[in-house]
Design a protein that fits this description.
The chain is globular. It is α/β, with parallel strands linked by helices and about 280 residues long. The chain has helices spanning about 1-15, 20-25, 70-85, 125-130, 135-140, 150-160, 165-180, 185-195, 200-205, 215-240, 245-255, 260-265, 275-279, and strands at about 30, 35, 45, 45-50, 55-60, 90-95, 105-110, 110-115, 115-120. Helix 1 (about 1-15) crosses helix 10 (about 215-240). The chain contains 13 helices and 9 strands. It folds into 2 domains: about 1-120, Trna Endonuclease, Chain: A, domain 1; about 125-270, no CATH class. The strands form 3 sheets. A 5-stranded mixed beta sheet has the order 1-4-5-6-9, covered by helices on one side. Strands 2-3 form a two-stranded antiparallel ribbon. A two-stranded antiparallel sheet has the order 7-8.
């Protein structure tokens, strides 16, 4: 789930006050807080935000049914309270393929805890596709799709109209999330088709390529886009974990290849600081 977590966090963290997250929680988050929670063992929540009026918003992503999810969320709530002296508003966003079957309550003598668990497939696809936010459109690939090919085509059209820097990250994010729905092959075919149908020299998602090298250029562009997206995810996650990176540290990450990025991701949560991580 780690690679999907990174993509989902990146998409939602880029839109503080509007879009899908605001509609989901009913609150407008104004800043993101540290997600490391003190305990006997260090805990990390997926997203922890703060609204203008001081309310804490806690979001967790789940790709598999966990019968102990309510217990986990209760533990998170208490850990957040230990650090911030406040009980958060909590939501679990289920993005798995199997039907949602997680209990939302934890009961005992004089004890009742309830958490909100939302299946992202229950969000109307059109609501996300019509959103002015590109991040919402990308999330639409996880909803209950009546026409997978058409949805992916529409998302790619939105990505194609974004800036070159945005396209690289968005392609990487869409490809990762499409994998959760077994849609990678459809996405690749739509990318190839788009490269043929649109003006190659002006509007291709991956920049100018020659018509006689459309397929080769598309494949190279896809690989480049996913790698660049992985670098952006790593920078986002490290910034969230340790604070702002130095120019030298950011440059080092942006020069990493896929194998180095994969190694970095496995070490992020074990490292106590950036010095240990890059040692």
């Amino acid at each position: 789930m780690n690679q999907y977590d990174i993509a989902l966090k990146s998409l939602l963290q880029r839109q503080l006050q509007n879009g899908f997250l605001s509609r989901l929680t009913g609150h407008r988050i104004t800043e993101w807080l540290a997600t490391e929670l003190p305990e006997v063992r260090t805990r990390h929540v997926d997203l922890l935000g703060k609204t203008a009026d001081g309310q804490l918003i806690h979001i967790e992503f789940q790709s598999r049914n966990d019968p102990r999810m309510a217990l986990r969320m209760a533990e998170y709530a208490l850990a957040i309270h230990r650090r911030y002296r406040m009980i958060p508003v909590q939501t679990v966003i289920y993005v798995g393929e199997r039907p949602l079957r997680m209990p939302t309550t934890l009961t005992g003598p004089d004890w009742l805890y309830t958490c909100r668990i939302l299946d992202i497939r229950d969000i109307p696809t059109e609501d996300l596709l019509r959103s002015p936010h590109l991040e919402d459109a990308i999330l639409a690939v996880l909803t209950r799709l009546s026409d997978s090919r058409d949805t992916i085509r529409r998302i790619l059209q939105r990505i194609g109209s974004a800036t070159p820097d945005q396209r690289s990250a968005a392609i990487g994010e869409l490809m990762l999330l499409a994998g959760l729905r077994q849609l990678k092959m459809i996405m690749k075919k739509e990318l190839e088709q788009m490269s043929i149908l649109i003006d190659i020299n002006r509007h291709t998602i991956f920049g100018p390529i020659h018509r006689e090298g459309v397929k080769e250029g598309m494949e190279k562009g896809l690989e480049k886009g996913m790698e660049e997206g992985a670098r952006l995810f790593a920078v986002d996650l490290l910034t969230q974990r340790f604070g702002k990176l130095s120019p030298a540290q950011a440059k080092r990450i942006r020069s990493m290849n896929q194998a180095e990025l994969a190694t970095l991701r496995t070490r992020i949560f074990d490292a106590k600081n950036l010095k240990d991580l890059f040692a």
